[in-house]
TrEMBL record:
<dbReference type="InterPro" id="IPR005119">
    <property type="entry name" value="LysR_subst-bd"/>
</dbReference>
<comment type="similarity">
    <text>Belongs to the LysR transcriptional regulatory family.</text>
</comment>
<dbReference type="GO" id="GO:0003677">
    <property type="term" value="F:DNA binding"/>
</dbReference>
<dbReference type="InterPro" id="IPR036388">
    <property type="entry name" value="WH-like_DNA-bd_sf"/>
</dbReference>
<dbReference type="GO" id="GO:0032993">
    <property type="term" value="C:protein-DNA complex"/>
</dbReference>
<dbReference type="GO" id="GO:0003700">
    <property type="term" value="F:DNA-binding transcription factor activity"/>
</dbReference>
<dbReference type="Pfam" id="PF00126">
    <property type="entry name" value="HTH_1"/>
</dbReference>
<protein>
    <submittedName>
        <fullName>Transcriptional regulator, LysR family</fullName>
    </submittedName>
</protein>
<dbReference type="InterPro" id="IPR000847">
    <property type="entry name" value="LysR_HTH_N"/>
</dbReference>
<keyword id="KW-0238">DNA-binding</keyword>
<dbReference type="Pfam" id="PF03466">
    <property type="entry name" value="LysR_substrate"/>
</dbReference>
<keyword id="KW-0804">Transcription</keyword>
<dbReference type="InterPro" id="IPR036390">
    <property type="entry name" value="WH_DNA-bd_sf"/>
</dbReference>
<feature type="domain" description="HTH lysR-type">
    <location>
        <begin position="1"/>
        <end position="58"/>
    </location>
</feature>
<keyword id="KW-0805">Transcription regulation</keyword>
């Protein structure tokens, strides 16, 4: 077993096909296939299940790749420390619904990591893609919420993808609005209070479903609906149109600006916000740092 073989396996898992992995590694596809088969033979396991649609990581492969990532990270650190050369770019990816604490934890990760050579990704994306990213190992960690409405369906989807959900904290329903909105002066608001105002939500693309909605009470009938893809656009519209969105109430002024406020919503309900990972997968060093940061912010939520 060599570090090169471990890198080949990790990249192949991320790309999902041997051809894409070979192209990104700048080697011939037959050479990559041979190297992966030799690694599997030496380890006595099948890291990948191969189909005509690509390769999928096996259950035993998930555990193996968790250790492989740790070995590659440690090798890179040794190279940087003792040869004063770059140990190669470290890669890490998180997929998340639109939460400021997920961004804050990502900032902490980069500050703790402290290297000049990395390639990290923070994907604020749709719920279906979060699950798919982690299932295909494109992201090590995904962040989303469960509640009474979506839990049965989403847990079934998570189980079918061999994923597990770990709760970080429970949040009561709030709204985000502009501080100039007339409702900003209220201690709490009702659904009736919100009737005249435009409702903003994050669109879920071709997999649009109430169960995938990022906002609770998604089945409510509203006369004014606006769907957006990114957080900055949503906040701009909250200010420009006096709109509102339903959320966890967790806000960060540095990231979201001083003009957005969170007001409690009187409706019964809660959001169990947490993260998803592959079952039995061993967290990478970077994954562990990120999860530690997430848990710190969760305690203050």
């Amino acid at each position: 077993m060599t570090l090169q073989q471990l890198k080949y396996a990790v990249v192949t898992a991320e790309k999902g096909t041997v051809s894409e992995a070979a192209a990104s590694l700048y080697i011939a596809q037959p050479s990559l296939t041979k190297a992966l088969k030799e690694l599997e033979k030496e380890m006595g396991i099948s890291i990948f299940n191969r189909t005509n649609k690509g390769v999928f990581v096996s259950k035993e492969g998930e555990v193996f790749l968790g250790y492989a990532r740790q070995v590659l990270e440690q090798a890179a650190l040794i190279t940087e420390k003792y040869t004063h050369q770059s140990g190669g770019k470290q890669e890490f990816c998180v997929s998340t619904q639109h939460y400021s604490f997920a961004v804050n934890a990502f900032v902490d990760l980069i500050q703790v990591y402290g290297s000049d050579n990395y390639d990290f990704s923070l994907r604020e994306t749709q719920t279906y893609e979060i699950i798919d990213d982690v299932a295909r190992l494109k992201s090590e960690i995904g962040i989303l919420y469960l509640n009474e409405f979506n839990e049965t369906v989403l847990r079934k989807i998570l189980k079918s993808n061999d994923l597990q959900f770990t709760e970080l904290f429970e949040a009561k329903p709030h709204i985000f609005i502009s501080d100039k909105n007339p409702l900003a002066q209220k201690a709490e608001v009702t659904m009736a209070d919100l009737q005249p105002y435009p409702y903003l939500s994050f669109e879920q693309g071709e997999h649009n479903s109430f169960y995938y909605s990022e906002e609770i009470f998604s089945t409510e009938i509203r006369s004014k609906n606006i769907r957006v893809r990114d957080r900055a656009t949503l906040f701009n519209l909250l200010i420009g149109l006096n709109g509102y969105t339903i959320c966890s109430g967790v806000i960060d002024e540095e990231l979201n600006g001083e003009n957005i406020v969170a007001i409690p919503l009187t409706e019964n309900g809660s959001m169990h916000i947490g993260y998803i990972t592959k079952k039995h997968a061993v967290p990478s060093r970077l994954g562990s740092i990120y999860l530690d940061a997430l848990k710190r912010y969760a305690k203050n939520s």
